[in-house]
Amino acid sequence: MPEFTNPFIGVVPRKMTLSELTRAIRLDLAAEHEAVHIYEAHAEATDNELAKKVLLDIAEEERVHAGEFLRLLNILIDDEEKFLAQGADEVNEMAEDTPNNTHQQSSSVLSIGNLKKSN
């Protein structure tokens, strides 16, 4: 539930350490994912085309925000990309072994991981 009524909820009484900052950004990332879920659920629950269109547009914007937070974490934490790449590789291996996998791997998507592998 929103805590807008508490004027101190967003106030940090001192500068955060890097560890605290990265935890805060992970929370921000989770909030973006939650917002996407909520907006998509609301869009699916209505027959009003305008509301559906606006809600899905906002959900897409939240996905962009999630990407921004994720990129920031990749910059702030030295080994973050390594762990994310490891997880992606594990899923790719499972996808290759899964019959009727409808999602094709895209090696054309440019990422830091792709750039590192090509060097």
Pick out the low-confidence regions: none
> Which structural class best describes the helix and strand composition?
mainly alpha
Question: How many domain regions?
Answer: 1
H/E series? HHHH
> Number of helical runs?
4
Layout of secondary structure:
Elements: H1 18-44, H2 49-76, H3 80-96, H4 112-118
Helix pairs in contact: 1-2
For this entry, give a set of tags.
flat, mainly alpha, 4 helices
Protein model, in words:
With 119 residues, the chain is an all-alpha fold. The chain has one domain (18-90, 108-118). Helices cover 66% and strands 0% of the residues. It contains 4 helices and no strands. It has helices spanning 18-44, 49-76, 80-96, 112-118. The protein is flat, with a radius of gyration of 18 Å.
Put the structure in a nutshell:
The protein has four helices and no strands.
